[in-house]
Amino acid sequence: MSDEQRNAKAEAKSAKAKAKALRPWYKKKRWWVIGLLVVIIAASATGTNSGDSGGGSGNGSDNRPTDTPTENTIDPGIGSQDATADLVSLDCGKVDAIGFRYPAVTVKNNSSKPSNYWITIVAESADGSQRYDDTIVLINSLGPGQTMTEDGLPFTNDIPSGAICKVSEFQRTAS
User: Fold this and answer.
1) Which among 23, 41, 129, 153 would be 20 to 30 A from 5, CA to CA?
2) 3-class DSSP assignment, residue 140
3) Half-sphere exposure (Cβ direction) of 139: Cα atoms closer than 13 Å
4) Which residues touch 85 (CB under 8 Å, ≥6 apart)?
5) CA-CA distance, 121 to 127, in Å (whole number)?
6) Which residues have C-beta within 8 Å of that of residue 48, sequence separation ≥ 6?
7) Cα distance between residue 23 and residue 28, in whole Å
8) Phi, psi (5° rounding) for residue 153?
């Protein structure tokens, strides 16, 4: 290969790099990646800022609140209406053989249409100063007037004796 050919290839490569560098900012991949990261961070931050609420108390030795009353401060999430009246009971569950605890929620659909439920449960200290873990319970296509008890995903952290479970988010959407 002659020097002229090498110089021509180098100049072409240089011109291509210069054109790429002079592209508008919105056509550069790094800005799309940064923008996507900002959106993901913002979505996760708003998803974890659900309000503290619900009620209930531990029963001492096995840390299992039952028939937890609700308060009006439970976050309805993306649900358009407060559906906390559909929550019948909450049970923190017992520790199984491998150390997991599966909370259970009983829900009665008081609406006139089939509904989906997304329920966030938190385990925290009795005074609310320490949050130990959280988990979700999903119920799909529960018909009008139907009642269902569903186990949630397990708490994976150790929950000390005396901790309580609360519902922090209770979403009901149409099926």
Assistant:
1) 23
2) strand
3) 25
4) 70, 110
5) 16
6) none
7) 7
8) -65, 150
Q: ∠34-38-42 over CA atoms, to 5°?
A: 170
Q: According to CATH, where is 2.60.40 located in the chain?
A: 84-174
Span 5-61, pLDDT tens digits: 888 888 888 888 888 778 776 777 777 778 888 888 777 666 544 333 333 333 333
Q: Are 174 and 113 in contact (CB under 8 A)?
A: yes
Tell me the one-letter amino acid at 149. T
Q: Give the dihedral of Cα atoms 89, 70, 135, 174; nearest 10 deg.
A: 80
Fold that domain 84-174 belongs to in CATH: Immunoglobulin-like (2.60.40)
List, for residues 70-113, the tens digit of each pLDDT value: 444 576 666 557 788 999 999 988 888 887 888 999 999 999 99
Annotate 56-85 with b (16+ C-beta within 10 A) or e (fewer).
bebeeeebbbeebebeeebbbbebeeebbe
